[in-house]
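Objective 1b of the project was to move from sequence-level analysis to a structural picture of ligand recognition. The entry below was assembled by the postdoctoral researcher (A.K.) and checked by the PI before modelling. It contains the amino acid sequence of the target and the SMILES of the bound compound, flavin-adenine dinucleotide.
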Amino acid sequence: MDHRVEHIVVVGGGTAGWITACVLAARHPDRSDKGVRISLIESPDIPTIGVGEGTWPTIRQTLSRIGIREADFLQTCRASFKQGSRFNKWVTGEADDSYVHPFELPVSQNGSALLQAWKSLAPDKPFAEAVCVQSAPELEGIAPRQRAMPDYAGAMNYAYHLDAGKLVDLLRDHALSALGVQRIEDNVVEVIGAPDGDIEAVRCDRTGPVTGDLFIDCTGRRSLLLGTHYDVAFIDRSDVLFNNRAIVTHVPVGPESRIVSETVSTAHEAGWIWDIGLTNRRGVGCVYASDYIDDDRAGHLLRTYLGDVEHTPLRQISFQSGHREHFWHRNCVAVGLAAGFLEPLEASAIVLLELSAEMIAETLPASRQAMDIEARNFNRIFLYRWARIIDFLKLHYVLSQRPEPYWQANRDPKTIPQRLQDYLEVWKTRPPSAYDFDQAREVFPVASYLFVAYGMGMMPTTHPTLDPRVQDTLKTEMQKMLRKRRSLAAGLPTNRALLGGCAVASTVSL
Ligand SMILES: Cc1cc2nc3c(=O)[nH]c(=O)nc-3n(C[C@H](O)[C@H](O)[C@H](O)COP(=O)(O)OP(=O)(O)OC[C@H]3O[C@@H](n4cnc5c(N)ncnc54)[C@H](O)[C@@H]3O)c2cc1C
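Corresponding predicted holo structure:
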């Protein structure tokens, strides 16, 4: 008789563990006699990583599906609206060097048509501002939604900036009170294998063995089940993505201060600094490669960036860009840092763990027999996703013209994945196209490549002449976009007006 999947054990209570437990529990409610039970084991002693403040618009669907109200989320997580990323000093390093990668799509997905429309109709504007409603000076600090709109709906596409610790607290409360997840607060001290090679149980310090049919490894960088127990290799990608350290701090802000809608990423001689505005503070972090500058120099760069503002003590985090050789092995699948991590330039970690949780929930095998087939599919899709994210992150470095040794080394072809090298070659003469990307649900679709590539000055030398009818249509679309932008600027509140003075005391009601 085949073994039914009845008990899922999530090991680890960080963002990955609680999001996965919530997504699974919301999709597979416990129907007592034949439902799926979900338990989560979290250590009382081992802290979560405590960073991860930038998200992608997928987070709205995730929170909505697991049944959390948007107002509760905003209030608890001191969250603000993220509408894209701004990259300062990435191209030349000069003071006026700045471009935006917004969340809204451009008026067309056709790279050639967009390029021609931009060059002929709005050549004096930056690319994103010319072709995308969201990116314009008149929308700076403006919220993407009205107070009266339904939960998670927006006049413009958006994600959030949030307090990672508060998000874990909110997810935990919700999982326990509304979704029937069982929490075991204990340390896992041993992984117990079954004779066939599956995991039979994990032994907890005080609780003893916890048996399960499927184990989700969310133990963070320890990767206790997939990495340590199964010894699935870690593929180090620091040959492509050099950064391996971050120094982080928080800057308190007043209740009247302006809240920026983008993650601001400012390049420096050997990395970059993130600046993320929440309702009660800014999270600021200096990301760098220790092969190029030492910790003291990175601390100095961060302090210089901060100026004389008050901030919390600096905290250092080490990391390594890379991922496991595969993610689902026998009856164990790793999600979050246990599966891998790529430097946080485009906030790709939480979106990847949401997509993992979503796919596990959607394809959850009813029995052990089906599990290996689902595992193969999962591994194929996610290996592709990790590789494409590496390409996309590297693109930001390859297109830079900055002169420092770190930036020069980043442009060395030996450090550029072959697929990206191939596309950079063809993009010399034609724009990136949707045909360059294999999956229907790309983490970074062609629009993202266009925003970064044209934002950084990449310019194909030739492109097909535009059919006059296409040109007319695009002209009309751009005019419509400008009208929409004007009405959004006039009709939407500022981030601060919508989110209130301080979310703790909140009067936020959407
Ligand atoms: C500098 C930096 C900046 C980042 N910025 C972003 C960002 O802007 N956006 C984004 O999407 N992501 C970002 N990330 C990544 C993000 O922080 C993580 O992907 C996310 O927090 C998920 O972490 P996790 O839950 O996998 O691991 P963790 O938070 O480390 O959680 C691991 C859990 O496992 C538990 N555990 C470990 N061992 C045991 C044991 N033996 N027994 C029981 N429990 C155990 C721990 O107690 C903890 O609860 C950033 C990461 C870094 C390093």
